[in-house]
Design brief:
Blueprint: E1 6-7, E2 18-24, E3 27-31, H1 39-48, E4 58-60, H2 66-69, H3 72-78, E5 83-86, H4 91-95, H5 98-108, H6 112-116, E6 127-129, E7 133-134, E8 137-141, E9 150-153, E10 158-162, H7 186-199, E11 203-206, E12 210-212, H8 215-234, H9 239-253, H10 255-264, H11 267-283
Parallel strand pairs: 3-4, 4-5, 5-6, 10-11
Antiparallel strand pairs: 1-2, 2-3, 7-8, 8-9, 9-10, 11-12
Helix pairs in contact: 7-8, 8-11, 9-10, 9-11
Length: 284
Amino acid sequence: MAPEPIDLRHQGAARVIGSYLLDTEDGPALFDCGPSTAVGRLKDGLRERGLSLTDVRHLLLSHIHLDHAGAAGVLVREHPDLQVHVSAIGAPHLVDPARLEASARRLYGETFDTLWGELAPVPEENVKVVGDRVLGLDCFPSPGHASHHVVYIDADGTAYSGDAAGVRIQPHAFVLPPTPPPELDVEAWHRTIDELERRQPHRLALIHFGVAHDPAPHLNQLRQTLDEWVEIVGGGASEEEFSSAALGELRSEDPAVAEEYDRAMPLWQSYAGLKRHWAKRDKS
């Protein structure tokens, strides 16, 4: 049976951030956990599935951005036996999140606490660096959106893909690439998409939001849109022009759907990441 996300209802809105409960060879695990501001909703979602937080043995993180992993330290503080799996690059920032928090506070300013809440450290003994296999799932590096991103593929063919497979608010068909600063790497993202295609998953479990059952066209659209966005910003588009181009079709068809996408993937962040991409490229 295909997994269904726990809707964390970030800031009270549906289908913005999800978390997935899955069975592993060592008991229940969560794939990504959302921010600390959504811990209450995460617990509610577990209860709806007949579990409490202390029944969950493992937390599998795609990467350490706050919408995916911000609550990790708070969860471990409440459940000290919880094991947190993350890439080698991301692990030190879980143990000491000071730099991560400082960077995020610069980006979000006064909205940081309302959006994300507490960013607590994860004790080093609870942090497990991922390898090629994690709890019976295949695991592989998937940079592009972030250098420390990983994807997990279950034996049932589900690719728990975080942001590597883009944003697609189910049941809509649009697939958009989240491209925030500071680590966007377009060439690496193309290689990640190629690797996802090579592995031929049956479905893509997206944090933003839901399960995509058509991986091949989904990934093809992601690749095409990523390249289009890079060219739009590289051609000198302003943030307003980029936003109009990025969501123009959506806005003309259904303004409410466009708002959903912009809530899950703020376009001002995507524009900033693409501008940084071109600035780094021009310097090299």
